[in-house]
Amino acid sequence: xxxxxxSGKVKAIGVTxxxxxxxxxxxxxxxxxxxxxxxxxxxxxxxxxxxxxxxxLGILLEAYSPLGSTGAxxxxxxxxxxxxxxxxxxxxxxxVSYHINKGVVVLPNSVSxxxxxxxxxxxxxxxxDLDVLDGxxxxxxxxxxxTPLWGFDLGFADWYAPAKSQ
Length: 166
Ligand SMILES: NC(=O)c1ccc[n+]([C@@H]2O[C@H](COP(=O)([O-])OP(=O)(O)OC[C@H]3O[C@@H](n4cnc5c(N)ncnc54)[C@H](OP(=O)(O)O)[C@@H]3O)[C@@H](O)[C@H]2O)c1
Known about the structure:
With 166 residues, this protein is an alpha/beta fold. The chain has one domain: TIM Barrel (Alpha-Beta Barrel). It has 8 helices and 4 strands; from the N terminus they run αβαβαβααβααα. The site of NADP nicotinamide-adenine-dinucleotide phosphate has 24 residues, from helix 6.
């Protein structure tokens, strides 16, 4: 990927699903710092340590499954709904705005034209609201939603243990 970047064919190169231990390994070899790291990110999986680490190295974080993936389960959380009600917007707007306010790229997905359009809306959130959202996981709501059976450990503290070879 670095060769492709150096050839001028692409403007930026990035990674996805890279945890701190793997980024540390890559850091020994990279000549170009990845522009972006796309990971599952939302108030139930805020990845505070990874955010701090990427901020220090100038790697932009990009949030996938920001609404909690299929069926947008985070939208029904009472505390997220309360913040939405207080701000007069939908829970989806709060979940999208959470990232925008933290300088994170956000990648919501929808098959509905109306939702694709409304998911572009972001609002400024108060420190109080951001603190509540940032603290939900630590309060017992921590949940990683996308753990496909890739068969190896991605190095995140909450990733499933790899299957032991017989
Ligand atoms: N790099 C990776 O390993 C990785 C892994 C997973 C996902 N991703 C990427 O991340 C993007 C988003 O992830 P995702 O699809 O898992 O999760 P998501 O965007 O958190 O959630 C999508 C779900 O939320 C619903 N939804 C979207 N907007 C809504 C709204 N305004 N109100 C109510 N419901 C709404 C969608 O239903 P409707 O379609 O019916 O609106 C769909 O069921 C995708 O483009 C995907 O390619 C990357």
